[in-house]
Amino acid sequence: MSLRIRNLYKKFDGNTVLEDVSLQVNQGEIVTIIGPSGAGKTTLLRCINHLEQCDGGTIEIGSQYLCKDSKAGAVYCSKGELAAIRKKIGYVFQSFHLFPHLSVLENLMAALIQVNGMKRETAEKKAMDLLVQLDLGEKARMYPYQLSGGQQQRVAIARACALEPMVMCFDEPTSALDPEMRGGIVNIIQGLATQKMAILIITHDMVFAKAVSHRIIFLENGRLMAEGKREHQFKDLDNERLLHYVNVE
């Protein structure tokens, strides 16, 4: 087990956004969360990455607890523990969040030097190796504005991989891509899973979700409503509303 969430609750201004959400993602597993806009998908990712604090529930990364449930609500770990836990979580944002004033290579090196305290020479070699793996070696000295959307996304993935996370989160990974580029991102994410990463994705792209996932979970109104597995061709998503949503026949 790499990621375990139990009984997660989150409210904004008295409105419940996540209600009693529990799920687990194991090493080497790709789990995709689907659902309509406003279902709570992005809020869930932000809670996992501590960009939002949940109001109740437990989040466990590996053998460490980001937060534990209590009668008074979620109790968070110390700042020192938080720094260690966040190193285990990679997050590829929908808008990529690359540093525009840094080259592609420098975007990767910054994470290694500032977060891991790596020496510049070592960081440069590791960053370059990652770029080569994602067919970006020739783009190392270019800047984000000089890249296509697909290339920027691969840089963002390489940067997230640089810290060797245990859990990788993707927020709408195909939103900036042409439809014919889906296959490339499917291959990249499945390759990360073979490295024993636990992968959690949120998306509206049903073709992509069915191509990449081991499991698909349907989230609506802040609650996990159903789950389907690849070995069943996702036909175990037997809720009529959900079957229509994912177009499973």
TrEMBL record:
GO terms for molecular function: ABC-type amino acid transporter activity; ATP binding; ATP hydrolysis activity. It comes from the Bacteria. SMART domains: AAA. Coiled coil: none annotated. SUPFAM superfamilies: P-loop containing nucleoside triphosphate hydrolases. Residues 3-246 form the ABC transporter domain. The keyword Transport applies. One of its GO terms (cellular component) is plasma membrane. The keyword Heme does not apply. PANTHER family: AMINO ACID IMPORT ATP-BINDING PROTEIN, GLUTAMATE_ASPARTATE IMPORT ATP-BINDING PROTEIN GLTL. This is ABC transporter related. It comes from Alkaliphilus oremlandii (strain OhILAs) (Clostridium oremlandii (strain OhILAs)). The lineage of its organism: Bacteria, Bacillati, Bacillota, Clostridia, Peptostreptococcales.
